[in-house]
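User: Here's a structure from my thesis project, written as structure tokens. My advisor, Dr. K., wants to see whether a designed sequence matches the one we expressed. Can you design one independently, without my sequence as a hint?
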């Protein structure tokens, strides 16, 4: 799994929250449910135990993701072509609209935040492309044509992108 340093830190923070705050909350729910009496017929206790099992599964998943993660070093990103860690501006040829995307690994993808997975239809179509190239992108809504306006490396450590080219 490919992660930017920002994505790695986000997952670490989520894992820390689950291990501490959420575990504590669920343990309190279980303790309170036990006080209701017989746990054999206690729906509140069963619900809390189920939530605890789901939490532990989520924690295990995050631990594995972090252990297997391959971090992208923005200093190593080739800014002459689109790659994971790049920020690209794409111009829809038909709609004549320009959209800017951060190309990230699938674990960080969030189209609402303009974070596009390298495994998405658009991501696959533009990886390795250069500025000025027009690419065909097949999406669930049909075939679109887009032109790479630029491929820039961004520093993920700052709140606002810092352009290297």
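Assistant: Designed independently from the structure alone:
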């Amino acid at each position: 799994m490919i992660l930017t340093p920002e994505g790695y830190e986000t997952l670490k923070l989520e894992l820390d929250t689950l291990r501490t705050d959420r575990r504590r909350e669920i343990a309190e729910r279980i303790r309170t449910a036990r006080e209701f009496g017989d746990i054999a017929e206690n729906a509140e206790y069963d619900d809390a135990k189920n939530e605890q099992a789901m939490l532990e599964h989520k924690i295990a998943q995050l631990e594995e993701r972090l252990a297997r993660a391959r971090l992208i070093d923005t200093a190593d990103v080739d800014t002459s072509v689109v790659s994971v860690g790049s920020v690209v501006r794409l111009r829809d040829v038909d709609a004549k609209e320009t959209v800017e995307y951060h190309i990230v690994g699938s674990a960080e993808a969030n189209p609402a935040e303009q974070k596009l997975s390298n495994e998405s239809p658009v991501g696959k179509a533009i990886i390795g492309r250069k500025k000025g190239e027009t690419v065909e992108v097949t999406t669930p809504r049909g075939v679109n044509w887009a032109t790479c306006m630029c491929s820039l490396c961004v520093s993920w450590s700052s709140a606002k992108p810092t352009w290297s080219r």
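When you compare it with your expressed construct, this may help: The radius of gyration is 22 Å.
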